[in-house]
């Protein structure tokens, strides 16, 4: 039974490591859903294309005033699109931060609850002389000689999971 429990804990830690690696991709999916291009932005982009094409057809030497007016309109639309882009990037940072915070809170609660629930029980029992110099550290907090405690097992699982992920 202890081996199954140890494997279960390892899988939980490993899947948590995978989830941590997937946070940026998940945030990107959420952002794509939240920030679909609106009709107003599409109209601004189309207007920008139209004005740029029109400005390219106007000779700056022959019709300077018209060219300058078009340039001011183009600049105004580009500024509006840049502002929209800044708002999108600010929202993307917020969404990513919130998703990371929620993940780390859930992960912390999971780790603390495992350590609290199984603090007195050994995860694995090994011969005591296998763990001779570090037996007390490895057995913490269970205190059973030759045991691997939950704290040590979680540290080992986290390190192995970090290497595998």
UniProtKB/TrEMBL annotation:
<keyword id="KW-0472">Membrane</keyword>
<dbReference type="GO" id="GO:0071816">
    <property type="term" value="P:tail-anchored membrane protein insertion into ER membrane"/>
</dbReference>
<protein>
    <recommendedName>
        <fullName>Guided entry of tail-anchored proteins factor 1</fullName>
    </recommendedName>
</protein>
<dbReference type="GO" id="GO:0043529">
    <property type="term" value="C:GET complex"/>
</dbReference>
<keyword id="KW-0732">Signal</keyword>
<keyword id="KW-0812">Transmembrane</keyword>
<dbReference type="GO" id="GO:0043495">
    <property type="term" value="F:protein-membrane adaptor activity"/>
</dbReference>
<comment type="similarity">
    <text>Belongs to the WRB/GET1 family.</text>
</comment>
<dbReference type="InterPro" id="IPR029012">
    <property type="entry name" value="Helix_hairpin_bin_sf"/>
</dbReference>
<feature type="transmembrane region" description="Helical">
    <location>
        <begin position="130"/>
        <end position="156"/>
    </location>
</feature>
<feature type="signal peptide">
    <location>
        <begin position="1"/>
        <end position="19"/>
    </location>
</feature>
<keyword id="KW-1133">Transmembrane helix</keyword>
<dbReference type="InterPro" id="IPR028945">
    <property type="entry name" value="Get1"/>
</dbReference>
<dbReference type="GO" id="GO:0005789">
    <property type="term" value="C:endoplasmic reticulum membrane"/>
</dbReference>
<keyword id="KW-0175">Coiled coil</keyword>
<feature type="coiled-coil region">
    <location>
        <begin position="34"/>
        <end position="87"/>
    </location>
</feature>
<keyword id="KW-0256">Endoplasmic reticulum</keyword>
<feature type="transmembrane region" description="Helical">
    <location>
        <begin position="97"/>
        <end position="118"/>
    </location>
</feature>
<dbReference type="Pfam" id="PF04420">
    <property type="entry name" value="CHD5"/>
</dbReference>
